[in-house]
Write a structure and sequence with these properties.
CATH class of the largest domain: Mainly Beta
Number of strands: 18
Mean pLDDT: 85
CATH topology of the largest domain: Jelly Rolls
Strand content: over 45%
Order of helices and strands: EEEEEEEEEEEEEEEEEE
Number of domains: 2
Largest sheet: 5 strands, antiparallel
Distance between the termini: 27 Å
Shape: globular
Helix content: under 10%
Length: about 260
């Protein structure tokens, strides 16, 4: 393991696992995955809604070591402790209740990002397993280093689970997110504009030339930007709605 230090999101420590290492060029095909498992403080009740959240950060290997980021992170709650099978010695394909959104590739190595969701318990669940439960063809990745090779390592912190009625009522806020970042030109833009006010999303190059523009509808929405539109480099983006700026930041494109 390479020397590395990062502050915990909460407290004094965090967990780290290899969520996905895949090499189809050897036989048998290497599909290596690690998992974190534990026991809940109370058994879940049948038909009850639960809210779960946890925080994730991507670990970057040195550039001479090929590595990748992906969208295959989830939690599976169960009444018995899941184990690997004889046919899937490293991977566990269980129907995880909490999952990162498809296409949301977490590649930020400096900031913790939240994954959250709700589910209705079957009843009797008292164990949790954290990791990658997706089939290989269901995983979206971006690659770093010397070659395209799936090796993804993530840190995890501050897991919480509670009944849905115990969560604080959501206060609607306007936001703008671009994932993944850095990326290879393919990216997903998530945003929320309160009300039905329309807006515009714009990307500028380093000398201030507008290279991309997309009209935004009101409320919460998502759109995709194709990798063919931008070459490698650093860009700046912003979203405007009326006289207000929803957000701004930079994008790094690596091809």
């Amino acid at each position: 393991m390479l020397p590395y230090f990062q502050h915990a999101y909460f407290g004094n420590g965090y967990a780290g696992i290899l969520t996905f290492a895949y090499n189809p060029n050897v036989w048998p095909i290497a599909d290596v995955r690690e998992y974190v498992q534990g026991t809940l403080s109370a058994t879940l009740e049948t038909g009850k809604c639960y809210y779960c959240e946890f925080w994730v950060e991507f670990f970057n290997y040195k550039n001479e070591v090929p590595y990748s980021a992906n969208d295959a992170i989830g939690i599976f709650f169960s009444d018995t402790l899941p184990k690997r099978t004889d046919t899937d010695t490293m991977a566990m394909f269980y129907p995880s209740q909490i999952n990162i959104a498809t296409g949301r590739i977490i590649s930020d190595t400096s900031n913790w990002e939240k994954i959250s969701g709700t589910f209705v318990a079957t009843g009797g669940e008292k164990y949790f397993t954290v990791g990658n439960f997706r089939k290989v063809n269901e995983i979206n990745s971006i690659y770093f280093g010397t070659s395209q090779f799936d090796r993804s390592y993530y840190f995890f912190d501050n897991f919480s689970l509670c009944p849905c009625e115990d969560t604080i009522k959501k206060i609607e806020v306007e936001y703008l997110e671009v994932n993944p970042n850095p990326n290879n030109g393919n990216m997903i833009v998530n945003y929320n504009i309160i009300g039905n006010e329309k807006g515009v999303f714009e990307i500028y190059d380093m000398v201030g030339r507008k290279v991309f523009s997309h009209e935004l509808s009101g409320n919460e929405n998502t759109f995709f930007i194709s990798g063919a539109l931008l070459s490698s480099g650093v860009y700046f983006y912003q979203a405007l709605a009326g006289k207000k700026r929803i957000g701004k930041d930079k994008i790094i494109v690596i091809k």
